[in-house]
Amino acid sequence: MDIALDTVSMGRMGLQVSEIAFGTWRFGRETDAGNLEIDRERAHELLDTYDAAGGRFIDTANVYGDGKSERWIGEWLADRDREDFVIASKIYFPTRDDDPNGNGLNRKHLRRQIEGMLDRLDTEYIDILYTHRWDDATPAREFMRTLDGFVQDGRVNYLGASTLRPNAWKLVKANELARRYGWEPFTVTQPRYNLVDREIEGEYVEMCREEELGIVPWSPLAQGFLTGKYERDADLPEDSTASDSEGWEDRYLTEANFQTLDVVREVAAEVGASEAQVAIAFQRHHPQITAPIVGARTTDQLEENLRAATVDLSTEQFERLDDAGAGPFDSLL
Ligand SMILES: NC(=O)c1ccc[n+]([C@@H]2O[C@H](COP(=O)([O-])OP(=O)(O)OC[C@H]3O[C@@H](n4cnc5c(N)ncnc54)[C@H](OP(=O)(O)O)[C@@H]3O)[C@@H](O)[C@H]2O)c1
After folding, report:
1. 283-310, pLDDT tens digit by residue?
2. Based on CB atoms within 10 Å of each CB, which residue in 18, 182, 237, 324 is the most buried?
3. 175-190 residue pLDDT tens
4. Are 305 and 293 in contact (CB under 8 A)?
5. H-type alpha helices, 190-314
6. Quick check: CB of 23 below 6 Å from ligand 1?
7. pTM for this predicted structure
8. Please, what are the domains in the chain?
């Protein structure tokens, strides 16, 4: 590709990451309708496309594609220099049926999973390990201490917490505990955030600023809604797998969201970019956001999304987008 992604600092960490991360949730994933979204060959083509744009920040999880996502990334990395990439993965969701310790953040599950992840990724360490969800059944002191052990023995470099809204206070409490005992705190968060999913604005974003956490949003395109390929009162396009997911239509195909999309379309026409590029550029221009994790099912989609790195928005355009569909929380900008 004829673009080169820049790097940005991750919160207050020393780590540098690409300004756009690539998400691999759909590698090896079957939709609710039973369709495989991305097979191994396509997964490697997508990683090649990201690499060709200078992309260095890859997001996965132990459960994506039942481990296929990590395994396929590991196989792809085998022909490359592991040191060039920042690999983030996650633990929480069940990995063993009928095993009460086969899920969550209990020590037994964390220890078994970190070994499996390193094996599948064929690497000695993970750059960022996220708790995929908060585990209220396990005391924070148990998982913070266990996670700190992974940092101390070199298997993990940084800790992150994903999707814990609305419980921002839980992260602060866990970080205070970690600091009291000299353990590694969370330094990055991964919430859902895009122009039509604005729940984190308000207390959560304020907490991230106070704690100096990096914010790496998932679903920056609202699982495809913000690409503009869905129209009011029209049949769903055939080249979409997101709409196979239960609840997706009710969540995204609302009149309020289409009104936000109208503003995205307006700005896209003004800057000569696609709707997807404007939605991603909004995040790049957002002072609180470190780097959005874009998803893509095809290399054409990914190329289009990565070209968002070349889209400049004026302050007025950014504010118009920010005002469109702003949620119940006051914008903090
Ligand atoms: N921490 C968490 O709990 C969590 C949760 C979800 C995701 N994530 C991470 O965030 C990543 C991104 O999430 P996401 O897949 O929901 O992201 P997204 O970027 O909002 O949506 C990606 C989907 O939108 C469609 N799309 C993307 N670019 C397009 C384009 N240019 N034109 C038309 N359609 C396009 C594709 O689906 P179709 O072609 O099928 O429409 C694609 O699979 C995941 O891979 C994962 O790494 C984390």
Report:
1. 999 999 999 999 999 999 999 999 999 9
2. 18
3. 999 999 999 999 999 9
4. no
5. 203-211, 248-252, 255-271, 275-285, 299-306
6. yes
7. 0.96
8. 7-332 (3.20.20.100)
